Amino acid sequence: MKESLVRDALRRIQDIVAESTGEPLTAGAEKRLESLLRAVMGEAQPESAGENFSERNVTMLFADLRGFTAITANYPAGVVLDLLNRCFVTMSEIIVRHRGTIDKFMGDSIMVIFSGAASGEDVRSALLCAVDMQVGMAWLNRNKKGGVPELFMGIGINTGKVMAGVLGSELYSAYTVIGEDVNLTSRIEAFSLRGQVLISDATFALCGEFARTGEPVEVFVKGRPERVRVREVLGIPSVDKEVPRQEVRRSPRVEVSLPFSYQMVEEKIVLSDTASGLIRDIGYHGILAELDEELDLLAEVKLEIELPLLSFRAKDVYARVVKVVRKRDRHLVGLEFTSLSAEANSQIQLFVQMLIQGGEAGALRRF
After folding, report:
1. Which of 111, 105, 107, 103 is nearest to 166 (CA)?
2. What are the tens digits of pLDDT across the range 39-68?
3. Which of 112, 115, 117, 68 shows the shortest CA–CA distance to 94?
């Protein structure tokens, strides 16, 4: 019975391919497709894994819900599951509409593959899909039920070579892609803020003027000797679509528990008294600090921050108080950097990027 189903499905797919492209699948491609169909039907895999894999160029999209861990900790399981299901149903519909293939769901994340067409067309499909996914997230938030929190998504896109095929055994198997460019896509997604779409240089090179993007930004990627350049997708002019950004912050922020010292600045004079505090989260442009004393809004301070992962002490960092919140006998103070050296700026950015990718100092919290 299974044999007849496999052969019938193979014939139907051959007809579709021939009708669409004018050429049938090659013998090698037909063999790989037959192997995949047998895996789906639960039949044994070929003895040699190499027979089941092929190298190909694809465009990958990784999407992840921001702040979902906090939602699971503060809402009943039924609410969380309903929220996640509504989100993934909407996202799946958008992905299928743009001819993407959902490789897998990973908790609150989605991995999508775009392949089978010319590289430029795959890239355009992925970009359109990403923009529509962010539009869909905005729609979900506008139409959410009372008492249900808003959801935000960060998206990363990259184009490169992968090994594609079926992994597993008779007990369980799945079609997937593996390779360095898969890992890079995941890293790029980790840098995206709420409602943001980031793309690699490889993807940008293939999209031409199809997408309107921001200026390139270089980021540290774990395991790579050189910085990686990424760009933010702002919109698709040809279809009059804009990305509905939800994030007012200008950079990623990560949660830490990092001691620091500071001095007050009055009329451009640094006072001699030094006090200490604890940095609760840090980004490229500022920190959230926990202090014993209350500081006035817009007060000026000079900071010294030890960055343990880098063995670097950022000195002569000046900041302004932009937020003050009392927390029992302590104070949470938002400080925005106003002046710092180029080296300190570079090291703080590198420190944040290392923590995003699993640095040992501090626990990560993505917003």
Report:
1. 103
2. 666 655 444 444 567 788 999 999 999 878
3. 112
Which single residue is written with the structure tokens 């500022």?
286
Render the burial of 78-98: b for 16+ CB within 10 Å, e for the rest. Answer: ebbeebbebbbebbeebbeeb
Q: 212 is written with which tokens? A: 């309107």
Q: How far is CA 339 from CA 18, 45, 106, 260, 286, in A?
A: 63, 61, 41, 17, 11
Domains of the chain (ranges; CATH) run 2-43 (no CATH), 54-242 (3.30.70.1230), 253-356 (2.40.10.220)
CA dist 336 and 321 (Å) reads 7
Gap between the Cα atoms of 195 and 215, Å rounded = 17
Whole-number Å distance between alpha carbons of 291 and 277? 5
What does the pLDDT look like over 173-218, one tens digit per residue? 677 889 999 999 999 998 888 889 999 999 999 998 899 999 998 8
Residues 6+ apart with CB under 8 A from 196: 154, 155, 232, 243, 245, 247
Between 21 and 200, residue with greater pLDDT = 200
Contact 167, 271 (CB under 8 A): no
Cα(64)–Cα(195) distance, integer angstroms: 10
Rounded to whole angstroms, the Cα distance separating 70 from 365 reads 9
Instruction: Encode 30-64: b = buried (16+ Cβ within 10 Å), e = exposed.
Output: eebbbbbbbbeeeeebeeeeeebbeeeebbbbbbb
Give 17's Cβ-side CA count (13 Å radius).
15
Q: How far is CA 354 from CA 223, 231, 284, 351, in A?
A: 11, 19, 12, 5
**Lowest-confidence range among 66-75, 107-116, 253-262?**
66-75
Tokens of 248: 């007012």
Number of Cβ within 10 Å of residue 25's Cβ equals 17
- Dihedral angle sign, alpha carbons of residues 21, 27, 30, 36: negative
Q: pLDDT at residue 78 above 90?
A: no
pTM of the full predicted structure? 0.72
Name the one residue in this structure whose structure tokens are 């790579």. 224
DSSP H stretches of helix in the chain: 2-21, 27-40, 68-74, 77-97, 119-142, 180-191, 201-207, 342-356
